[in-house]
Amino acid sequence: MLIYMLATAMTVAMLIATVFGLHQEAERVRAKSNAKQFGGFGIRNPQRHF
């Protein structure tokens, strides 16, 4: 009985860790795409303007 409770607890912990990791990855991708859309200020590639 104890082994099943430990297995259940580990399964729940791993599911929570997976959800947290997916959330972090989605935030990182979202931030990266927002930075790409904005483009920043100034000239990004000075060699292009010669």
UniProtKB/TrEMBL annotation:
Domain of life: Bacteria
Official protein name in the record: Uncharacterized protein
